[in-house]
Amino acid sequence: MKRLLMIVALAATLGLQAQAFKGKGDVKGQVGATFQDGGNGIAVTADFGIGENISLGIMTNYILNAERDLSFKPRFEDRADLRLRFNANIGNVFKIDEKLDIYPGLSLGLRNFGGHLGVRYFFTNGFGLYTEFSAPFSRYDSDVVGYEYYNNQFLFNIGASFNL
């Protein structure tokens, strides 16, 4: 019984310290899996708080298992993407839970201009989970075919989030 009470007290203490977005000076890192039509891969994100509810960041993702239904193998540049991001961190606006951050945003990438909607939840001060959806609003090439479609479509990410 004492052990159970100690575990509950420890969990409650860790939960009180967790905060999803702290504002200016906050730095978040995320590593996760990406899922899209034709291939899955990995994504790495870094977001830097520049105001109470604003962050700027960078995201890169790479498709690991691109479908090989075309007559040529995809090159590195067909599989990789790099995006600059702007986030409106509005978790505290809804006053749901200080450990929860909801962040809609815009991204400017190598292939398109798009938007994203993400949610991250921190279990401790340093570790949490995130999920994010993104989609292009405007593609730089209006006639995408074959591997040009990779990283230029609806994308779903899920993974771990860290305070850095």
Polypeptide structure, described:
- With 164 residues, the chain is mostly beta strands.
- Helix content is 15%, strand content 51%.
- It has 3 helices and 8 strands.
- The chain is elongated.
Question: How many strands, which pairing sense, and closed or not: the largest β-sheet?
Answer: 8 strands, antiparallel, barrel
Shape descriptor reads elongated
Strand order of the largest sheet: 1-2-3-4-5-6-7-8
What fraction strand? over 45%
Structural class: mainly beta
* Helix segment tally: 3
Can you give the helix content as a percent range?
Answer: 10-25%
**What integer is the average pLDDT?**
85
Order of helices and strands: HEEEHEHEEEE
Distance between the termini: 36 Å
User: Which residues form runs of ≥5 with pLDDT under 50?
Assistant: 4-17
User: What Rg is obtained from the alpha carbons, in whole angstroms?
Assistant: 18 Å
The count of DSSP E runs of length 2 or more, i.e. the number of strands, is: 8
Write the layout of secondary structure elements.
Layout: H1 2-17, E1 27-36, E2 39-49, E3 54-63, H2 76-79, E4 80-88, H3 91-94, E5 100-109, E6 112-122, E7 127-139, E8 155-163
Antiparallel strand pairs: 1-2, 1-8, 2-3, 3-4, 4-5, 5-6, 6-7, 7-8
